[in-house]
Design a protein that fits this description.
Layout (H helix, E strand, L loop, with lengths): L39 H29 L2 E5 L1 E4 L8 H7 L3 E4 L13 H7 L2 E8 L3 E2 L20 E7 H9 L6 E7 L5 H5 L5 H4 L6 E8 L4 E5 L3 E9 L2 E6 L4 H4 L32 E7 L4 E4 L4 E6 L3 E9 L1 H10 L13 H20 L15 H4 L4 H19 L25 H14 L2 H14 L7 H14 L7 H6 L7 H10 L1
Parallel strand pairs: 1-12, 2-3, 5-9
Antiparallel strand pairs: 3-13, 4-6, 4-7, 7-8, 8-15, 9-14, 10-13, 10-15, 11-12, 11-14
Helix pairs in contact: 8-13, 9-11, 9-12, 9-13, 9-14, 12-16
Amino acid sequence: MGKTRKRGAGGPKAAAEPSPAGSGGLQLEPPAGYGQRYSIKQLVLLFILLGVMNFAILKYRAYVRNKTAYEVTGGVEVKTLDSPRSRFARDCAAGGVPVVLKNSVIESWGARKWSLDYLESKMGVLSGIYENENRWFGPYFDFQKPLGDFATRINRYKTDLKLSAKEFFKRIQNPTEGRFLYFTGDVDRLGEWAMREVQPLKELLLLNPKRSSVNVWMGQPHVIAHCHYDGYHNFYAQLYGTKKFTLFKPTNWPGLYPYPFLHPSHAQAQVNLSDFEDVDDFPLVQKAQAVEVVLEPGDLLYMPPLWFHHVESLDVSISVNVWTDSQQTEVMEGIFSLPLPTERVDWTSDHTKRVATSVLIYSLLDSVCQWRECTSASRDRFLNQTELKMPNKVLYFIHQLWTTRYRTLMDREQLPGIFSASSNRDAILCEENSDNPGVLVGEILVALEAAGWSSFVDEVRTRAVAKQLPEETWELWVGNYVEFVAAHSMSVEYVGLFLKHFGSCLTADVQSRVYESM
């Protein structure tokens, strides 16, 4: 509080003292109430008011961010089939876009009568329940992936809770604050009876019956499956309650910042769309475009391979889905199995092998980009003026892999030590640059050609293009393959910096020589 002018004890106002300069000779008195003490009650009310105002501001900011995090361009087409016996799987796959089917085969399932009481009466003990302190389940973390020993896991949730069916359904209907439950697993984990009640499955398995799985999903209101993509065809049957799906075409990958292929959270978005607070770290998400749909009981949603999806249960929800492997997955498995030319040469140093790998990756991408538009019109919204001026499509593609998959992880120190985004490029690629790099590259080109380089590039291009990886998915697949190739020529912890400084040993002259040699 400010000082108050003293008064005579119980007497009249003290005589005025000389006024400060500029006061016009007048004695200034403090305003009424100045210096008064507030009661505890008034202070408590003031703090409550400030707290409410602060909470409202935070909620408003979150609301604004959520509303502007990405653009919703529309809904999903809904088709009503003539009868539950109607065929639809091949048409859905050929269409290549999500679609909701009504009056489908699931109307003939015994599972259409599933209710919480019914399931409780049929089930015993349920194990492997997911439990979390927040409603966001993800990103998934696979410790077996190459970066499993280096990556930082976020949002650790339990996956081993065991409850009786009665207790599980009681908890998801009457949730405890700060405890969220979710279950997913093969449908026969509910009991052999459950698989019998999701028959017939023939139409849903039609696209690849030998490589398929049937799964059940159960959870309380508002739980969320983190935004991710799968390599499968996905038929998703809503049986009880409602769910909201937010779907992104695969070409939106730069705006969703997928984790690296080598990372334990591969195929999942780094952006948390359920609680978006980091637009500064993920600026391109504002350019991503989504479609949304709410599934009701009896709806069957088809999702094509590699479509990103973010899923929220709006009520207590029960669903069953069928995954079948796609031709795209089989094509890429064939490419991943090809022996790499760089593995057939006894290189004189690790540095030489890394330069050879950069030559191999450059030639692969250049070959594919002659058949595919690496910076297609649908992607223009993700480019800035600097990137548009990059010398060629290959360097831009590598730049996008670095900026969307690795840079934020490094900046946030979610990959330790050597992954620092500010690390010196010379520590990763060019520390042994020879006095005559043209000679080094010439030797590398000769060695690669002797190892079958040209035929290898042609084979990858043929499999990726002639076997028709779809226009909207090939960039995700090829980006994964680039990481795979890089990881075979260096320690896995160096791959991010290798992508960042990919062009440091590939001068314009070197690029020209690579092109002429192909």
